[in-house]
Design a protein that fits this description.
- The structure is a homodimer.
- Helices cover about 35% and strands about 15% of the residues of chain A.
- The first copy, chain A, is of the alpha/beta class.
- In chain A, the strands form 4 sheets. Chain A has a 6-stranded mixed β-sheet with strand order 5-4-3-2-1-14, with no helix packed on it.
- In chain A, strand 18 (about 435-440), helix 12 (about 445-450) and strand 19 form a beta-alpha-beta unit.
- In chain A, helix 1 (about 20-30) runs parallel beside helix 2 and helix 8 (about 340-350) packs across helix 13.
- The longest helix of chain A is centred in the C-terminal third of the chain and has 23 residues, at about 410-435.
- The N and C termini of chain A lie far apart (about 65 Å).
- The relative contact order of chain A is 0.09.
- Chains A and B meet through helix 1, helix 2, helix 7, helix 10 and helix 11 of A and helix 1, helix 2, helix 7, helix 10 and helix 11 of B.
Chain lengths: ~600, ~600
């Protein structure tokens, strides 16, 4: 074998993006290409991900064509004394006259000085499960890509291409491998350009799968992911290079980052007998709702590391929404309970110097003195003024208005809901007054059983806890208190959960204990377990039936809920698609 | 040619369904199969459509397996003195141990006395645009189906199979036709089992396409569609049989219906030179957002026939939601304006003997005397008591509460929104008190530009007018007045539109005139026109820019909106997928 003429380096560009922010994309790209290296950018770097229907809009097509032109113009004029090369994720339109779309592909472009953007690879596996809709927009590629750079050859993949499973009809890695054998090619690396959404602990799955592929091909694996919060979906970065079992480098989580790796410095032993195991499929890794397990169901408790990862994700997701919607103020309704205290604590930890948060306490006749004290105590710790907006008088005034009009008063659930909606209304009035972003305080357990008031405590621009069960809310609160010097008063964590909408109300009056409710919900939502499975796993029949009934009757509330920062493979929101109206008898099986 | 042994009849079963209502499905099926005929049921008759994620749930799989077993048991025991045959839409699971899904197909089953359900055809074209997600769940079939019944041979299609376009990679009709030539088959008919969502005027498109296919194959075309309102999507039935240009029979709209057709009685001349024209594609027919036209844009005015069709659809959609969610009461907030008056009129026309509607008027300090009078007048015509729930006092009380807490009062937009939210809250309190379903009163123009208050006038279980532009709201109101003896006071239609949230407010202070706004919006939403196109079509640059800005900034409101009864190919709701946060600069192209 001849000596390599130049030392081959790869530079991973983990970019921080806003959807369709084409000016930034141009600027970041053209200022990043300076060193002699193989520069790799994420999947759909040139547009942002996921574009959804924006990809179909003529104005976007025109703007994108303009971007491509600008990049090509720049490339033709650029000083080419340094010979950089870039691999860039983007899309490729096939249009007829008048910009009618015939075909769209999710591609990798090659860019070099004095050359135009040239598509070299089209994504072969288009994910179409959960939040993914790629088959709505894209046509799949049909060819492998062996990309030659200097005298190295790299296998190119885009995101899902590395996650083939038995569910898919083909495995791009397998097919690529067959071609390397047929053509007697020795690869210097596999490069994967990704736009991979965050789930907590997903990094481990990525490393594991990449390591298998690296052993299989006997070459290093380069993974470039983007950083973004696009409504409910986060992209965490955490790009990496590994070789066999050895992680060569890792890029930061939730921040733009960049790293160069010299191919010569990567030394590894590869296992000779590694196979591309398709039992480790994306269904099992990422859509566990397709798994039916008979083992006992416990909601695994969150480790400190996981709590920190979730906290980082929530802070990032909150800031992304705020930055992109141009909010500088946050607004939270404190109740004296756990959820709102945790939301305030997270927001406090997220705050930047130019930002502020306001906490409002809206006590009713049923609010306990303890709640007031605890809200006060919490705000004192955060050095915040607690704003009091009592609703007792307004609550009575509404009752009077009703009595005057309808000659009948209301009580029970109506009376509980009116307090909650009154708070929602006042909160949004304050939000209008100060231009603050309202942060929702519901958790996943409540959302799943409809234990909240539509247009009441369910309001908000975005939900921080909507993908965390109540028991996880406690775990995260305990972690924050441990790490950040008791930010949340201990009594808030230790008191029994209550909506305080009637005298002496406790959540446990209407719901099974959260230690029971949460694993039942996780069984239903993420593991696709049916009633029989749950009972076989030791849950009480009455509890299971009650939960199934509450769950299936509350779709209408979830249908109008705000975006929920997605932390898990299966969450409420865009990837959860259950009709409001249906016959729910099938849940009896 | 030998004489047919028996007269061949086809019976079209246009079923009225509830999603996953497996008991009803069993009963309807087993009581329908009596006559000696080829009985045809709609696509996915055995489950309902669209199942969405329910199809992935183990409990549903078990319940469905149970249904199949029950049908098979019944068939094995049934009296077989009459030899009926049935073609039934359903799904076919391929499962591994423990009910993990390997594959799902959208199929046609054959059923005969003493035989089990036998899959004979698997849908080849899986729609995956707009509200359709079939590639998320189904694997496409790869074979034609020529189904022999007595001595007739029928070509079988499922829904989308008849709508192949240049966008698709293949055309099931073309391929089927090639096979008839190769095998020298003479078809007695094409049978299409459909679950085809309603758009107004879609019937014409269906007939046109079916007629082309009928001429092409030189045989009759049988089309069986289901009847259902599934949240926002309606299925209108309107099944038919046609032969060449001649419509042999049509089934009712929005009702279950059944008709038998004797093959012998169908006589037609077929054109010899008809081709399957792929320019008449589903993009053009059903997703006009992919069309870019340079011709002048006018919002075509609704004909009387179209108004009646829309009215029927809205009444059906409202009743479907109410029945399936078990509401017997409706609740509407009247404002004295056009939208709420129309919603009340439609609801009034929809009412069944066991149902009632309540109209509430919640005047503020800015509500005009005229509004009060018009609400009174309207209710008098409908023989309804108008309920007054004045918000003036509560509005002041909230202002006082704010002044006490924040030492500053509010005005402007905050003051406008608080009135709207106060009404939303009171409306839902009344809804809680009486168990009534709140009907939303927003229209598509408002929704598109965000001219409504989140959690205020935007609340509701379902929206009737959310797919009608304001000018269409007027057209429909005029039609209703013409047909139903001035149900809506003429002054409501003739007065200028106003939110009445401040003194002398008119919609036209903040928005272009609806005659200008509506076609701009339709250009953007349904025709995918860009700014340049709109200006080239004669719209004022400032108007276009204003509309684009209002439109692109209000995604967050639409994201939390209630289901909208879908009347058009492109509507807000499940099929509309635009992110809240993105850089909107691309709209300048």
């Amino acid at each position: 074998m001849k000596e390599s003429l130049k030392p081959t380096t790869l530079t991973l560009h983990q970019t921080h993006q806003t959807l369709a922010d084409l000016d930034s994309i141009y600027t970041t790209l053209t200022t990043s290409l300076k060193e002699s290296s193989l520069h790799v950018f994420p999947e759909m770097y040139l547009t942002g991900y996921p574009l959804k229907d924006v990809i179909l809009q003529k104005s976007f097509i025109l703007a994108y064509e303009n971007l491509i032109e600008r990049i090509n113009d720049w490339s033709l004029k650029v000083d080419n004394s340094v010979e950089w090369t870039a691999l860039i994720g983007g899309i490729k339109y096939e249009l007829d006259h008048d910009h009618k779309i015939k075909k769209i592909e999710n591609v990798v472009y090659e860019l070099k000085p004095k050359q135009k953007l040239t598509p070299i690879y089209s994504k072969r596996l288009l994910p179409n499960y959960d939040i993914f809709d790629e088959q709505k927009y894209f046509t799949a590629g049909e060819h492998n890509c062996f990309y030659q750079y200097n005298d190295s050859i790299f296998g190119i993949l885009i995101c899902e291409d590395m996650w083939a499973s038995n569910f898919h009809k083909m495995d791009p890695c397998e097919i690529m491998f067959q071609e390397t054998i047929k053509k007697d090619l020795t690869l210097s690396g596999i490069i994967n350009l990704s736009a991979s959404p965050f789930n907590f602990s997903k990094k481990i799955s990525r490393h594991k799968r990449a390591s298998t592929i690296s052993h299989f091909f006997k070459c290093p694996f380069f993974y470039v992911n983007l950083v973004a919060g696009e409504d409910e979906v986060l992209f965490d970065g955490q790009s990496f290079c590994l070789s066999g079992d050895k992680i060569i480098c890792e890029l930061k989580a939730f921040q733009s980052d960049q790293k160069s790796i010299s191919l010569n410095e990567i030394k590894t032993n590869f296992n000779l007998d590694v196979q591309l195991n398709h039992t480790n499929t994306w269904e099992q890794l990422f859509t566990p709702r397709l798994q039916y397990s008979n083992s006992t169901i416990r909601l695994q408790s969150l480790s400190d590391e996981e709590c920190q990862e979730i906290l980082n994700a929530l802070i990032f997701g909150l800031q992304e929404y705020a930055q992109k919607s141009k909010f500088k103020k946050f607004l939270i309704a404190l109740s004296g309970g756990m959820d709102s205290a945790l939301v305030l604590a997270i927001t406090h930890l997220a705050l930047r110097p130019e930002q502020e948060v306001e906490a409002i306490y809206m006590p009713s006749a049923h609010s306990s003195q303890l709640s007031t004290q605890l809200c006060e105590k919490m705000c004192k710790r955060l050095n915040l003024k607690l704003q009091y907006l009592p609703i007792k008088f307004l609550h009575s005034a509404i009752k009077n208005t009703f009595e005057n009009t309808f000659t009948e008063n209301f009580s029970g659930l109506t009376d509980e809901n009116v307090q909650s909606r009154l708070r929602g209304m006042l909160l949004y009035t304050r939000s209008n007054q100060t231009g603050a972003m309202v942060i929702n305080t519901s958790n996943k357990s409540e959302l799943a059983v409809g234990y909240s008031t539509q247009y009441g405590d369910s309001v908000g621009a975005i939900s921080l806890l909507g993908d965390l069960y109540k028991t996880e809310v406690y775990a995260l609160s305990n972690y924050i208190n441990k790490k950040f010097n008791q930010l949340i008063p201990e009594e808030i964590i230790s008191r029994g959960p209550s909506a305080e909408l009637r005298e002496n109300q406790l959540d446990q009056d209407s719901l099974p204990a959260y230690e029971i409710l949460d694993p039942i919900l996780e069984g239903i939502l993420s593991y696709g377990l049916c009633k029989t499975d749950l009972i076989q796993n030791g849950f009480d029949t009455k509890d299971v039936e009650k939960v199934l009934q509450l769950y299936s009757r509350s779709e209408y509330k979830r249908a109008q809920f705000c975006p929920i920062i997605k932390l898990k493979s299966k969450s409420f929101g865009f990837g959860y698609r259950i009709s409001i109206n249906k016959n729910n008898q099938y849940l009896n099986f």
